[in-house]
Design goal:
single chain; alpha/beta
Length: 229
């Protein structure tokens, strides 16, 4: 049990939490350590588990809840932890609250009616350090959500440029290709690089940008104005 992946469920609907709990606990390497019905309760339980050295690896977070919504809870949790990964749950295909959560550091989102195998795969993907949003879908998401990004008032306030400037030429090229939706396999084929080399470049990009995963790195590329039509 100590080696299992610890997961917290946060949703104001009991039936949703119960269904997710049964599915997740059916996996030998997963273990639901806490459930909460609103953001305030989620934050309180998370901090308590953190003090007990039982901090959840993954938090499945509903977007709209009473007391404190998922966006506020995500902000508080990610300020208190550099290790926790948050997957937003929503009944909507694209949701501005979810996008804002990704900007805060959440690792993506899932629809509540996603197939069980997709949800389980997403949890494992996020735990590996990747985004829940598949790389092939990143460009489509960004194209829909880019109007929601607040444009800087002038070039001196453009975010992330200092970090982006620290990238090597190859890393900058790979970041742009990631933002266009290329998977690691596609990057290998396009750039004639080995998978290990591509993974190393992606890892360096995330470290230099201070991004939790490739989804957040792509958001940063868009916010910095790198992706122009």
């Amino acid at each position: 049990m100590n080696d299992s992946l610890k997961i917290m469920l946060v949703d104001d609907q009991f039936l949703v939490r119960n269904g997710l709990s049964m599915l997740i606990n059916s996996q030998p390497d997963f273990h639901v350590v806490a459930e909460a019905s609103d953001g305030e309760d989620a934050l309180s339980q998370f901090l308590q588990l953190q003090q007990e050295n039982r901090e959840p690896h993954i938090v499945m977070m509903d977007v709209r809840m009473p007391q404190m919504n998922g966006l506020e809870a995500t902000a508080h949790i990610l300020r208190s932890s550099t290790r926790a990964r948050i997957i937003m749950l929503t009944t909507f295909d694209i949701d501005d609250y979810v996008f804002e959560a990704i900007r805060l550091g959440a690792s993506g989102f899932l629809l509540k009616d996603a197939p069980p195998e997709e949800l389980l795969t997403a949890i494992r993907t996020v735990h590996r350090g990747d985004g829940v949003i598949a790389p092939s879908a990143t460009k489509r998401l960004m194209e829909k959500m880019v109007p929601l990004i607040t444009k800087p008032s002038d070039s001196t306030t453009t975010p992330h440029l200092e970090h982006i400037a620290s990238l090597t030429g190859r890393e900058h090229e790979i970041l742009l290709l990631m933002a266009r939706g290329m998977t690691n396999k596609e990057l290998c084929e396009f750039l004639f690089l080995s998978e290990a080399t591509v993974k190393t470049h992606v890892s360096h990009i995330l470290a230099k940008l201070g991004a939790r995963d490739r989804v957040q790195a792509v958001v940063m590329a868009y916010e910095a104005g790198l992706m122009k039509n």
